[in-house]
Amino acid sequence: MMREPARTSRRKRLSPRGIAEAAATVVIALGVVMLMQPLSLTLYGWSFPTTLVGTVMFLIGSKLPE
Amino acid sequence: MRFAEKVATVTPAAPARRVRSLSDRTIAWLFIAPTIVLLLAINVFPLIWTVRLSFTNYRANRMNVPLRDVGLQHYNDILTSPDVWAAMQVTARFVIATILIQTVLGFALAWLVDKKFRGHGLWTTVILLPMMLSPAVVGNFWTFLYQPQIGLFNYVVSFFTGIPPSSFQMLGDLTLSPWAIVLVDTWMWTPYVMLICLAGLRSIPDYIYEAAEVDRASKWRQFWTITLPMAAPFIMLAVLFRAIENFKMFDMVNLLTGGGPGSTTEVASITLKREAFEKWRTGYSSAFAIILFVTVFGLANIYVKALNRLKQR
């Protein structure tokens, strides 16, 4: 009885929408880290495209079925 | 009865005839149309116009110069500029320092306030006061507090440490000025983090602690295995919100240091202001604004997702 909600939530997380949103979140976070890191100017240069791709992924992903 | 019919019954005869002929959908659109027009005029149009300007050589102080398309030149300039990169790093240091301090202090305050000691209501109100002030007011009075000659802050530091009050300047020193801003931001926004954490702590049902007591779990174990994990989504929410707010922080920095001394406290929004209203590079600053906007928009998406997950709990 107690295991049912956990299985449901895992299934929900593995839905196309859940996967797309999780992937987009990682890409956005990566873009923000690249924007603010002090190590490489090249990484900084690619930060905006990365964040933009992540944001577009999130917008499209959030429209996918649950 | 349709909504149009209901409206028609309480409306004078002539307009009622016109209302009856409208569908509910049309009436709904009529009601929301002014708001949509206003939103388009003050939000969407400036955004689209900024995107358009970011691809041009437009300067707001030379409006007679013909507009020339420069493509992605401004974006390329910004994303290869060591100065803008430096401003981003200043912003990052500022965001990380404020979030770490505010989260620890906010959670500690929330934990104390949740204990419901005598007069906790009054203390909660007192703690919340700084958050209710305008950033402009806060910036101005902290500028006075930080004055090395007459400011109260230097005298308090002097009282506790013995360092002469006029021997250091919080806002004019390369090392101290970033911390001066962090201190003011922490003073102002820790209560907000405390409020969110308090909501998290109060959402934990008492029976979980009672069960832990029955199992003879120590207070320390209860904190690490019940309090912190169950309040974590709320803490995450506070961290995300403060990160977004501090990423676009402008007013406090502008009032306290204006980005100085040198460029020690020049956060991204101060660089943006300088490019837009001191150098008048409107096209360039539009591209910069779009970069900041996309970053904040991306973070805001994560924030909303976290908020929705919290609602489902």
Short description:
The complex is a heterodimer of chains A (66) and B (313). Chain A has helices spanning 4-13, 16-36, 41-45, 47-61. Chain A has 66 residues and is an all-alpha fold.
For the structure shown, list the relevant keywords:
heterodimer, A: 66 residues, mainly alpha, 4 helices, B: 313 residues, MetI-like fold, 2 domains, 73% helix, 0% strand
Give a description of the structure:
The complex is a heterodimer of chains A (66) and B (313). Chain A has four helices and no strands. The two termini of chain A are 24 Å apart. Chain A has a domain at 31-66. Chain A is mainly alpha-helical. Chain A has helices spanning 4-13, 16-36, 41-45, 47-61. By secondary structure, chain B is an all-alpha fold. Chain B has two domains: 3-53, no CATH class; 74-312, Orthogonal Bundle (MetI-like fold), CATH 1.10.3720.10. Helices cover 73% and strands 0% of the residues of chain B. Chain B has 14 helices and no strands. Chain B has helices at 3-9, 13-20, 24-53, 73-79, 82-113, 120-132, 135-145, 152-161, 176-202, 206-214, 219-247, 251-256, 268-277, 282-312. The radius of gyration of chain B is 26 Å and the shape is globular. Chain B starts with a helix and ends with a helix. The interface between A and B is medium-sized, with 24 and 19 residues.
Amino-to-carboxy terminus distance of chain B: 38 Å
Q: What's the story with the biggest beta sheet of chain A?
A: none
Order of helices and strands of chain B: HHHHHHHHHHHHHH
Question: Biggest sheet of chain B, in brief?
Answer: none
Total number of strands of chain A: 0
Q: Which structural category do the helix and sheet elements of chain B fall into? A: mainly alpha
Low-confidence stretches of chain A: none
The helix fraction of chain B, in percent, is: over 70%
Give the count of structural domains of chain B.
2
CATH class of the largest domain in chain B: Mainly Alpha
Q: What is the largest interface, and how many residues per chain? A: A-B, 24 and 19 residues
Overall average pLDDT of chain B: 88
**How far from one another are the termini of chain A?**
24 Å
Count of alpha and pi helical runs of chain A: 4
Strand fraction of chain B: under 5%
Would you tell me which CATH topology of the largest domain in chain B applies? MetI-like fold
